[in-house]
Amino acid sequence: MTTLASTHGKAPTIDEIITTVIMARVSDYFGFFVYGIASAIVFPRLFFPMVDPVTGTLLSFAVFSLAFLARPFASFASRWVQRRIGRGGKITLALMIFGTSTVAMGLLPGYVEIGWTAPILLALLRVAQGIGLGGAWDGITLQLLNAAPKHRRGIYATIPQLGGPIGFCVAASLFFVLVGFLTEEEFYSFGWRFAFFAVMAVNVVSLFARLRLLSTELKDETKTDLMRSSPFMEMLANEWKPILKATFIPIASYALFHMVTIFPLAYELLYTETSIAYILILQLIGASLAVCTMIASGVIADRYGRRRVLLISTALIALLCLTIQTLNNSPAIFIIAGFALLGFAHGQSSALSSGRFKEAYRYSASALSINLAWIFGAAFAPLIGLVLTAQFGLWAASLYMFSGIVVTLTAIFLFDTPRGNSSASSA
Fold first, then answer.
1. Residue of 164, 191, 271, 317 with fewest CB within 10 Å of its CB?
2. CA–CA separation, 408 vs 415, rounded Å?
3. What value does the mean pLDDT of the chain take?
4. Distance set, CA 48 to CA 51, 119, 120 (Å)
5. Which residues sit opposite 218 in a β-bridge?
C-alpha cells in the first residue's frame, strides 16, 4: 500500500480524504442535476416558448450539452492558470465561475421578457458552467485511490461515484418540495430559481474542504507529486491506449446516466399525464437504491474482479433496454431498475480513469479521459433519446443505451486483458 506524506505538516487521514471526496462530488453533482432537472421541466417553457414543447425541450437539451463540450478545453487551459496562481487558486477561481454562472441563471428573465437574448444568455452561462467544472478538476480522487489498500480498491473506487446518486437525491428533493408546495404559476415564476441559488452555498462549503486537503500537497512514498500536470502531447504519445480504455469502457454506464435521470422527466411531461412530483419520488427511491448497488459493485469487484462487474452490468443494461416502454404506463419499472443498474455499472468508473496510467501522467490523463467519457457517453443522451422518441417512438430511445453497450463491450475486448481476479489487476 502506498503511504502518504505531506510537505506541509501532518498528512490527512484516510477518513479526511474520504469525507472531502464525498463532499466535493456531492456538491458537483448537486449543481449538475439542478441544471439537468431544470433543463427538462423549466427551461423549455421559459426560454423556448416560441416553438412547440418537443422542439423547445430539444433546444433546451442542446444547451445542456454545451457544458460538457467546454470542459476538456477548460481543463487544458487550467494548466496555465495553475502554473500562475497555484492549484488552490485555480480551483477557487473555477468554482467561483461555476457558482456565479449558476446564480446568474437563477436571475435570468425568460423569453417573454427579453426575447432571444434570454436563450442566448442561458447558453453562454451554460458554457461558463462547463468552464468552471472543467477547471475545478482537483485530483482528490487520485489521492483516495492511491491511499486505498490493494485488496479494497474496488470499494474505495465507489466512494467518489457516490456523489452522483446522493447529489441527485439532494437536487430532486429540492425540486420535489418546490413543485409540491408551490402553485404552477409560483414555481415557474420564481420557485425554480431557489434551487440555483442553493448551488452557490453548497459549493462554498465544498471549496473550503477541498482547499484544506489540497494544502497538504500530498506525495507518495517515492516523493513524486500525485497531482502534477504533464505535457499534453507527451501524455498522448505514451498513454493513448489507457486513455481510450478509460474513455470507452464505462460508456454504457455513462449512456445510462442521463437516460434515468433527465430523460424520464422530459418524456413524462411531454407524452403522458403523470405528475412530475411522482416521477421525482420514483427517482429518489431509485437513487437511494443506487447508493446500495454502487457499494455492492465495489464489494463484488474486490472479490471477483472489476472486469466481471463490467461484463455483468453491461449485460443487465441490455435487458433494461427492453423495459423502456414501461415509461408509458408503469414508469417505476424502468426508473427504479435503471437507477439500480446505474449504481452497479457506474461504481467502478473512477478506478478505470486512473488505475492504469503511469504515475507521471496520471493527473492529466485522468482529467482528459473523464471529460471525454462524459462527452461520448452522457452529454447528448437526453437530446438523442428525445430525437429518436419524437421520430420513431419510445422504443427507439433505448438504441442510445444499446450503442453504449456496444462501445463498452468492444473496448473491453480490445483493450482490457484479464490478469487475475483482483480489482487492481482486472481494471
1. 271
2. 10
3. 86
4. 6, 7, 11
5. 6
**Among 53, 50, 30, 199, CA closest to 119:** 50
Q: At what angle do helices 263-271 and 331-346 cross, to 10 degrees?
A: 170
The model's confidence at residue 425, banded by pLDDT at 50, 70 and 90, is: very low
15, burial (CB in 10 Å: exposed 0-12, middle 13-18, buried 19+): exposed
CA distance 26 to 31: 9
Contact of 306 with 419, CB cutoff 8 Å: no
Residue 185: how many other CB atoms lie within 10 Å: 9
pTM for this one? 0.90
User: Residue 33 — left, alpha, or beta (φ > 0 → left; ψ -120 to 50 → alpha)?
Assistant: alpha
DSSP 377: I
- Per DSSP, the three-state class of 183 is coil
Nearest residue to 286 via CA among 320, 334, 230: 334
Distance CA 79, CA 270 (A): 43
Alpha-carbon distance of 346 to 257, in angstroms, equals: 8
Task: Spell out the residues 6+ positions from residue 183 whose beta carbon is closer than 8 angstroms to its own.
Answer: none
Residues 6+ apart with CB under 8 A from 215: 8, 88
Q: What are phi and psi of 5, to 5 degrees?
A: -135, 160
Residue written as cell 471525454? 372
Whether 379 contacts 65, CB under 8 Å: yes
